[in-house]
Amino acid sequence: MTHLEQKTCEMPIGVFDSGVGGLTVAREIMRNLPNERIVYFGDTARVPYGSKSKDTILRYSHQIIRFLRTQGVKAIVVACNTASALALDEIERELDIPILGVVRPGARVAAAATSNRRIGVIATESTINSHLYRRTIQEQSPDVIVFEKACPLFVPLVEEGWLDDPVTREVAERYLSDLLRQDIDTLILGCTHYPLLRSLIGEIAGGQVTLVNPAYETARELERLLEREHIANTGAKAPGREPYRFFVSDAADKFKRFANSILPYDIETTRKINIEEY
Ligand code: DGL
Fold this sequence. Notes:
This protein is 47% helix and 16% strand. By secondary structure, it is of the alpha/beta class.
């Protein structure tokens, strides 16, 4: 390997989301690819993305990618389901480094997992309205029927920390009842926050329904992508440099508290930047 190739392999992966939720994806990347460095950006000033239009999400995503490029990233993971569903196809065409979203890896695994050919998808309103999960599943398996349901109240409940709470259970039962009546055997947790409700959703759905976490599938797909492009960091992380760096557009302290509650280690600093400058 030349010196230049070695340098590229040591560059970080850029991961972005509308806020804290994408940390569920960063967490899976940390677990699955411990040699890789990460630069994470959470757009905490402009969250939620889940109720916004395609034009807005595209503009935000372009700004964030311009910022991540200033950090010298070798590849980008769009951790946000909404941005993956609304903006990824267009961004991908313009970018000269590899980029990966969370929707396609989740959809592909669900299509392979279902036995009775009936899959449920829960996500934000914008992700559901894009129908990208349904289209991707049916591209792979045209005979699969996909039932979609937007669950907008889950994001604030998770951010409130009400992961195992009677109110959240009541909301989940109401959201899931229609899907479960459709006899689905696979359910995609199609929003960054939903894996944090996995136990509750699993109890309501019952043991016969397989829950698919796109964050986990994305980390595995990222591993394959880095190998394919010959940019995986096979050596140890360079000592003396922060392996994981976190940036937000607002409320850095709140972000840090949430991050420390879900990541396997405590983060020291979160830097606030003005994303509108990019
Ligand atoms: N990160 C978003 C997603 O995965 C959820 C939060 C939001 O609406 O911005 O779709």
